[in-house]
């Protein structure tokens, strides 16, 4: 009997040892470049894996700019590569990628579009819904902000300017008073990069004009577009913007403002922490944030950025991927990214959360800018839209084209694309 029991125990242990291990679902996520804070995303992924032991997450990062990321993702998705399940994509990409058949519609996983997107800020809700289908879920917001030297405006008793003319006058007064030949009045981006799409749109929108209608059809007012471009050149001629503006990229503006060489600067949300926390910052504690100025008779408007989580149409783990996307787009994740990384929320409620306000006081000023923001054109052919606007705007700022020629070129090139 003892031998029989021993044999049964041995047989049982052998049988247990041959059972398959707990099934694992492996998800691969493209989490963007350094500005998209993959370090913070990894912490959220780790929390998700802890709560879901049957899931393992591999993270891929890369692409220092949205242009480089778009080039990479277009190559991978066009090849119908199933190796990446989830992508972090720019706000301008849902329409483009969904129209190409690269993204999995999420309605079956998150519910109908109206209900699923209701908690988010309106611009993010609308940008992620294509033809009634949820193409992606908001990760975090971003916008072009007008940063300014609060200490200098206080010193010269200047109120926050509300028009571009007032900004020009304020800049010249401060530049003359400081007597510093290296002090710029305003820094904007003019190189042929994605940020220069916004450089074109900001003065155009601030005239109360719309670039396209709700269906995405071009509604460009060429006269207003030329006026906006001429305004930038006028600020160059007045000595407010530096003459080589057509070479200025996003990091250039950040570094020059941080070095104390700029009074006003237009840049994305990530710049705030650079100004506040970088060891070599000369403006820490001296920076204010205000709504962008408007043209006389117009209204303030800014360019919205931000990033979205999307499930690949070629993923072999769509249901589990959608579950992870819902978690990454949740209010809890948004609050974590705000408090730990100063990444702007896509939920209005998170801006007023007591913990968020305590951790990131400047969000009280940021909220009114983000809420009033506008999206760059939503188009299935956004690559062509972006190229036409940024390259032509850069050429105008380099004075190889006149503002009227630039507006006409943008209009004629996009009339064929945004029908």
Descriptive account of the structure:
The protein has 20 helices and 12 strands. The chain is an alpha/beta fold and 419 residues long. It folds into 2 domains: 25-142 and 305-375, Periplasmic binding protein-like II (D-Maltodextrin-Binding Protein, domain 2); 145-301 and 381-415, D-Maltodextrin-Binding Protein, domain 2. Strands 1, 2, 3, 6, 11 and 12 form a 6-stranded mixed sheet that branches. A 4-stranded mixed sheet has the order 8-9-7-10, with helices on both faces. Strands 4-5 form a two-stranded antiparallel sheet. It is globular and about 70 Å long. The termini are far apart.
Quick tags:
419 residues; alpha/beta; D-Maltodextrin-Binding Protein, domain 2; 2 domains; four-stranded mixed β-sheet; 12 strands; 47% helix; globular; disordered N terminus
């Amino acid at each position: 009997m003892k031998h029989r029991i021993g044999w049964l125990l041995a047989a049982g242990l052998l049988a247990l040892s041959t059972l398959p291990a707990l099934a694992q679902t492996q998800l691969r996520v493209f989490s963007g470049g350094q500005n998209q804070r993959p370090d913070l995303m990894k912490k959220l992924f780790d929390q998700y894996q802890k709560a879901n032991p049957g899931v393992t997450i591999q993270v891929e990062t890369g692409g220092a700019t949205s242009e480089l990321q778009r080039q990479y993702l277009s190559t991978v998705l066009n090849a119908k590569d199933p190796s990446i399940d989830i992508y972090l994509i720019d706000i301008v990409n849902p329409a483009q990628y969904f129209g190409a058949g690269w993204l999995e519609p999420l309605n079956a996983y998150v519910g109908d579009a109206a209900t699923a997107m209701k908690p988010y800020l309106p611009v993010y809700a609308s940008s992620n819904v294509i033809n009634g289908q949820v193409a992606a879920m908001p990760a975090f917001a971003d916008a072009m902000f007008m940063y300014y030297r609060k200490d200098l405006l206080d010193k010269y008793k200047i109120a926050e300017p509300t028009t571009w003319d007032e900004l020009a006058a304020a800049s010249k007064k401060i530049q003359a008073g400081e007597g510093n030949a290296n002090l710029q009045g305003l820094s904007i981006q003019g190189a042929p990069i994605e940020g220069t799409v916004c450089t074109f749109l900001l003065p155009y929108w601030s005239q109360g004009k719309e670039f396209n209608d709700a269906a995405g059809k071009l509604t460009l007012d060429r006269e207003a577009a030329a006026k906006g471009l001429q305004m930038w050149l006028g600020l160059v001629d007045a000595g407010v913007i530096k003459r080589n503006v057509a070479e200025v990229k996003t990091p250039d503006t950040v570094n020059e403002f941080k070095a104390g060489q700029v009074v006003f600067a237009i840049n994305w949300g990530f710049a705030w922490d650079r100004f506040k926390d970088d060891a070599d910052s000369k403006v820490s504690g001296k920076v204010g944030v205000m709504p962008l100025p408007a043209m006389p008779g117009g209204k303030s408007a800014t360019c919205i950025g931000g990033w979205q989580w999307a499930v690949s149409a070629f993923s072999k783990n769509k249901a589990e991927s959608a579950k992870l996307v819902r978690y990454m787009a949740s209010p809890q994740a948004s609050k974590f990214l705000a408090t730990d990384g100063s990444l702007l929320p896509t939920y209005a409620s998170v801006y007023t959360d007591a913990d968020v306000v305590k951790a990131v006081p400047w969000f009280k000023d940021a909220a009114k800018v983000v809420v009033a923001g506008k999206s760059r054109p939503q188009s299935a052919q956004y690559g062509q839209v972006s190229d036409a606007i940024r390259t032509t705007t850069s050429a105008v700022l380099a004075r190889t084209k006149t503002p009227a020629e630039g507006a006409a070129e943008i209009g004629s090139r996009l009339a064929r694309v945004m029908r």
